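Input/output pair, single chain:
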Amino acid sequence: MTTELPLQSGLLRKAEVRCSTTSPVAALGSRLGDTPLCLLILFVTPQIDFAAVVGEASALYPDTVVVACTTAGEIGAGGYDEGLIVAIGFPSADFAATSLAIANLDRFQAEAETDRIAQERVALQDRNPDMETGFAFLIVDGLSRREDTLTATISPALRDMPLFGASAGDGTDFQATLVALNGQIMTNGAVLTLIRSQHQTQVFSLDHLIPTETQMVVTDADPERRIVKSINAEPAAREYARIVGKDPDQLDRFTFASHPVVVRIGGDHHVRAIQQVNEAGELVFFSAIDEGMVLTVAEPQNMADHLRARMEVLSADATPTDIIGCDCILRRIEAEQTQMSREISTLLSEYNVTGFSTYGEQIGPLHVNQTMTGVAFYRKAQVP
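Output:
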């Protein structure tokens, strides 16, 4: 069940409406109230005309940075939902923000963009010396296949400003994912938002997967298209199916969600999620893949129990007023498959998590999958 009332108990201003609502952007504006906002973020269901929504929002908030993306589902007041436009406003009294559009990711000019990001970061800090904390939020075209390069390139320019983000979605259709800044709509693009605050913030990522001893090696791949052609010198889909004990002709998104693979980076494991099997029997991945990569089969823990435990950690020293969460579509699929959707939705609602389901997640310099990334907000008197 979804409320359409304003949700204003925290530091952020939040509202949501069904896409079937008459004049949905005007309705959102009414529910957000009159508080001046420096930043407005919109998570927009693909069931509505995205261009109309962002155009109306930019006209309604001409003095506010308006960032938007399409989703693979929304996280609203009642947890997991679909068919919503979710709005998150950052009051100007408590936050300062600047956003950068990064177009044509296939022709990304690394040096020029990192210089621009570094300059904007310093300028934002200089303009707001009383705002001592901050973070960066990235949204990127979820079908661009450029997230890995993008995050690895821009992260150093942020210095000590922690980065999290997500890949825009298109439900489960995987046809068109869109991002926008102040009415400018992009495919093959991204929007990076730098945010400073007088309050405390804590960027986080979580996944509920435990690596097993079962491993496989990528022996033939097309890294540009994120396609694995062979594993252990055998056709990729059939070998993956053999290793996880499944019928190779019955592989689907539920199989991939319940039998994920991870790679070791530094001392940690990060998910490299499988999107689909193509007509050639190859595996198409959501994130970077290459020949010689060792993939480890992971075993999911109880997702609801794990989420509660991690939310309790975020609340250990102080209770967050709000949490923005970018949650992989594969987590939602697994929750549905294991009949945990209602329990997880209750937890998301209990901890004031607002966000959307994604085609991938970013944390620091990494693009990952089957993960939730996000940021928790704490009032200044509290210390996370």
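Residues 110-127 form the longest helix (18 residues). Residues 13-206+304-378 form one domain.
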